[in-house]
Specification:
The chain has helices at 10-25, 92-101, 182-188, 200-216; strands spanning 51-52, 61-67, 84-90, 109-119, 131-144, 153-159, 172-173. It is an alpha+beta fold.
Length: 217
């Protein structure tokens, strides 16, 4: 069966052309930068987009600590060297947001300090045993920025040079390749690429908030 061919009204044809032209001329919508929390310290980059060594993070929240943490099986440790101390710092605003919502906001920054251990017992001190952390020898950094990094998170390492001021030597670093850090975090981290299973201060605060929310309902 053949259907009769209908003629288009000139007005409708013109309207269709105008709409098509408008759609073609409309610029592509740009991705808006992710909103950040008010007052939160943000990463800084040089003109080439490389991360500058963060400063002032010592005032942030320490969300977890460890000593001798490694990524491979090893034999008995030297009793005189328990390994490297790690303190994990997080912006206070990101801490509060995670405790309240269970999510890490955009521009979250985790900073892990690497401090060699040294005997606490030295001449003239009251300590008779144990170990203390030496000054940091470098920083490990994780940044959440879905607009800047395709995977959402990026990872960096800063090695401090002995004898040079860390506040004055802000060497810039590029992010590690995906296979070097991201894949391991994606596979083994407990929450959003973050090893929250090692951060007792953070997880305890979140659990208390969850319990509080449950009792208030």
């Amino acid at each position: 069966m053949r259907y009769p061919v209908r003629k288009l009204w000139p007005g409708l044809l013109l309207a269709g052309i105008l709409v098509s032209a408008f759609i073609a001329a409309e610029p592509a919508t740009e991705k808006k930068p992710a909103e950040t929390l008010k007052g939160m310290a943000l990463p800084e980059y040089d003109k080439d987009g490389k991360l500058l060594r963060p400063t002032g993070f010592e005032k942030w929240v320490v969300v977890g600590t460890s000593i001798g943490l490694g990524y491979s099986d090893g034999g008995p440790r030297d009793p005189n060297d328990p390994g490297t101390f790690h303190n994990v710092y997080l912006q206070p605003q990101a801490f509060d947001h995670y405790v309240t919502t269970g999510k890490f906001p955009e521009q979250t920054v985790f900073i892990v300090t690497n401090n060699q251990s040294r005997p606490a017992k030295t001449k003239g001190t009251v300590s008779r045993s144990g170990f203390v952390a030496a000054p940091t020898s470098g920083l490990e950094i994780a940044i959440k920025d879905s607009n800047k990094y395709p995977d959402g998170w990026a990872y960096f390492m800063f090695h401090d040079q002995p004898g040079k001021s860390k506040s004055q030597t802000r060497t810039a670093e590029r992010a590690f390749e995906r296979k070097d850090c991201f894949d391991c975090h994606a596979e083994h981290a407990a929450n959003d690429n973050v090893f929250t299973q090692f951060y007792s201060v953070l997880t305890d605060a979140r659990e208390k908030q969850v319990a509080k929310d449950a009792t208030s309902k």
